[in-house]
Design a protein that fits this description.
The complex is a heterodimer of chains A (335) and B (357).
Chain A: H1 2-28, H2 30-33, H3 38-45, H4 52-61, H5 68-81, E1 83-86, E2 91-94, H6 109-144, H7 149-163, H8 166-180, H9 196-229, H10 233-240, H11 245-273, H12 277-282, H13 288-297, H14 301-329
Antiparallel strand pairs in A: 1-2
Helix pairs in contact in A: 1-14, 3-4, 6-7, 6-9, 6-11, 7-9, 8-9, 9-11, 10-11, 11-14, 13-14
Chain B: E1 6-17, E2 20-32, E3 37-41, H1 48-55, E4 65-72, E5 75-76, H2 82-88, E6 93-96, H3 100-103, H4 110-121, H5 127-140, H6 146-149, H7 159-171, E7 177-181, H8 189-206, E8 209-214, H9 217-223, E9 226-231, E10 234-240, H10 241-246, H11 251-258, H12 303-306, E11 311-313, E12 320-322, H13 327-338, H14 344-349
Parallel strand pairs in B: 3-8, 3-9, 6-7, 7-8
Antiparallel strand pairs in B: 1-2, 1-4, 4-5, 9-10, 10-12, 11-12
Classes of the chains: A mainly alpha (335), B alpha/beta (357).
């Protein structure tokens, strides 16, 4: 088990390096292949109406004309050890993990992202609890009462949930519950440490809207999984032992049906932690998703690079956790 | 037989489906005394598994319509409270299944699964006692190092060992009736004999009655006191194993016997297959359900096609046979067949010098 985890950790680090290479390549090689000069690139790092000298100075300072492997090395070194920027008159130190300075705000990228993480985390964790509990229990009930009114109704709603985009359900929810009947007025993010009650109250709508989409997916997945496992031979054995139906369903049926769901859940959560873009934009929640959108709108290269790598990091870590957890869940998986 | 441990009377198990009513079991009766073994024999789809699942009350929650009587120790199980049947299941009657790998839960250790079966019926037992019971049972069924293996998972056992685990689990509560549904079909030939020996040893030790379900007459030949031959959900022939092997009365039983290689015969006889396939249980052929596949149907002047044969005692041995053939005709045809005479249709379909028995 320990060697398995260590092996997977090494693999994870390697994977992250590859991801950083690809990301770096996308933002530094492809534009150059498309004809962008390093001078044009340097222009983006300087303020409005810069002089030619200022641009050339930046190009030299940041080493934008250097060979790409050197630049990638510096980029990686900055993430691991931090970077010293020499502006000629003074030296600024960007502590690790350093993703450089934002074009727009002239601030280091990392602290901005860090301050946005709690918003996305609050949104993702709350919604995932809702959709996991809701989706799985609806799926189980649907499977056990296959063909019943409940089954058809909930699967119909689930189909709607999967098909309706969040910007639609989100806006409808806002219109109804924030404006028409102001049960949840002024949905703005309040940090948990400031006021836990207000934090929860303001997140209820985003949670429900985001969870609706995923609950629909999970209900369908759980239903299919339960229908399959409940027809397995070992379920018949469990009944033949004289176990109560509840134990048969939960301990023997659900336990087996849940394994693939846990796998997908890990991935979904990892993906969401990188930013629930549409939900955050719909509800104006200042999380990583909103950060990403603004970075793209401003063509803020260091920010885009940083948030892309952070999102990749979450997904890779979620993958690792799922793999380890999977081995715990299914004794047949051994390392 | 009023003192029978298990008595099944006119059992009918029908499943309504969109294509029609599936008469999986249609009027089956048998009885089983303590310590005895009944072999239920038939092809796939003859209703033998459905019958046994019906006895265990495992059709609950399905669409099955069950009528007739199943009496366990005098207690009526058809229409009994599900909670009561659950108490009996695994406790007074237990079952082992065909494929031990798919029948054991892959996520729980075998010890855990035996403990679960034991504790549900012995709630006063502590975890340690139940675990000890699991270790004892594993030792009893011949698992080496049971104290270590008790924590292993099903996939860590070989096929034969898994079936031993299933047997240990089924017997953990000392059931009075053990139903074995094709317990050796998924196993290698060498292991099959070991498992059958184990079942009969344990039967002697625990005094359980055993129902052995199989399509292999060779399996029941060694173990069974009585044999029930099923065809299309009905009883074709029922009697003591000695009678049925000495004077089989039903052409279907002849077919099963003749299609089985036999080592106890002096000369090699050609295997005689039963032509055709088992009928659909939705549209069971009218009259004798076996008549479309029967080589002797023409000897009855059309009765086979219209009249359902009753289960009657034969004149020779007194065991029950559902066939229109007269006693004399039956004796004559079986004598010819057992003397190694191959029916004409088999000669015609099998090329000369083709299949050797």
């Amino acid at each position: 088990m320990i060697t398995f985890i260590i092996r997977r950790l090494i693999g994870t680090v390697f994977l992250l390096v590859v991801v950083s290479m690809i990301t770096f390549a996308i933002f530094f090689i492809i534009p150059r292949l498309a004809g962008q000069t390093t001078y044009q690139l340097a222009t983006q790092y300087v303020g409005r109406n810069p002089t030619r000298e200022a641009i050339l100075q930046i190009e030299r300072q940041l080493g934008l004309a250097d060979p790409l492997y050197l630049q990638y090395g510096r980029f990686l070194k900055g993430i691991v050890f931090g970077t010293h920027y020499n502006s000629g008159t003074s030296t600024t130190y960007c502590p690790p993990p350093c993703f450089g300075y934002s074009f727009r705000s002239q601030q280091p990228v990392w602290p901005q992202m860090v301050s946005d993480i709690p918003v996305t985390l609050s949104l993702a964790i709350g919604a995932s609890v809702l959709w996991l509990v809701g989706g799985v229990s609806i799926g189980v009930l649907s499977a056990l009462r296959r063909g019943s009114f409940f089954d058809r109704f909930s699967m119909g709603v689930a189909l709607a949930g999967v098909s309706l985009p969040i910007f639609f359900t989100g806006l409808i929810a806002l219109e109804l519950f924030s404006y028409k009947w102001p049960i949840f007025p002024n949905v703005t993010y309040v940090s948990f440490t400031t006021n836990p009650l207000l934090w929860a109250r303001n997140l209820v709508l985003p949670w429900i809207v985001l969870a609706f989409l995923y609950a629909a997916l999970y209900a369908r997945l759980t239903r299919a999984g339960m229908l399959e496992t409940m027809s397995e031979d070992y379920i018949r054995t469990a009944r033949a032992k004289g176990l109560p139906e509840r134990t048969v369903i939960v301990k023997h049926g659900l336990r087996a049906a849940l394994t693939p769901i846990v796998t997908i859940f890990g991935m979904d959560l990892g993906l969401l932690l990188g930013g629930a873009i549409i939900t955050e934009v719909t509800f104006s929640l200042p999380g990583l998703g909103l950060f990403t959108v603004q970075a793209i709108q401003n063509q803020d290269l260091p920010e885009i690079l940083g948030v892309t790598l952070l999102a990749a990091f979450f997904i890779v870590i979620a993958n690792l956790v799922v793999d380890i957890f999977y081995a715990v869940l299914d004794p047949r998986v051994r390392y | 037989m009023p003192d029978a441990l298990l008595e099944v009377q006119d059992l009918r198990i029908h499943f309504p489906t969109q294509d029609g009513l599936v008469k999986a079991v249609d009027g089956v009766s048998f009885s089983l005394e303590r310590g005895r073994t009944l072999g239920i024999v038939g092809e796939s789809g003859s209703g033998k598994s459905v019958t046994s699942l019906g006895v265990m009350g495992l059709h609950q929650g399905t669409q099955a319509r069950i009528t007739g009587h199943i009496r366990l120790d005098g207690e009526e199980l058809v229409g009994a409270q599900p909670a009561r049947i659950r108490e009996l299941r695994g406790n007074k009657m237990a079952m082992i299944f065909q494929d031990p790998l798919s029948s054991l839960h892959p996520y729980y250790s075998v010890g855990n699964q035996i403990v679960e079966a034991y504790r549900i019926h012995n709630p006063e037992a502590t975890k340690q006692q139940a675990r000890q019971r699991a270790v004892d049972m594993l030792a009893r069924v011949g698992i080496p190092e049971p104290k270590v293996r008790v924590d292993d998972y099903p996939h860590q056992f070989s096929g034969g060992m898994r079936q031993r685990v299933m047997i240990a689990m089924a017997l953990s509560c000392r059931p009075e009736v053990l139903i074995a549904d094709e317990p050796t079909t998924a196993l290698e030939v060498t292991i099959q004999a070991q498992i059958l020996d184990l079942i009969s040893d344990l039967q002697a030790e625990f005094g359980s009655a055993v129902i052995m379900i199989t399509h292999d007459l060779g399996v029941v030949a060694e173990l069974s006191d009585d044999i029930l031959v099923m065809y299309a959900g009905r009883v074709a022939e029922y009697g003591s194993a000695a009678d049925i092997f000495a004077r089989p009365g039903h052409p279907y039983t002849w077919g099963l016997l003749a299609s089985m290689p036999r080592m106890d015969r002096e000369r090699l006889t050609r295997l005689v297959p039963i032509p055709g396939t088992p009928p659909s249980l939705i549209r069971v052929p009218p009259g004798c359900p076996f008549h479309p596949r029967c080589r002797y149907g023409h000897l009855n002047g059309g009765r086979s096609e219209t009249e359902v044969p009753e289960l009657r005692a034969t004149e020779e041995t007194g065991h029950l046979v559902a066939c229109h053939l007269t006693a004399a005709e039956r004796t004559r045809q079986w004598a010819l067949l057992s003397a190694g005479q191959v029916p004409d249709d088999v000669k015609a379909t099998v090329p000369q010098g083709g299949v050797e028995a």
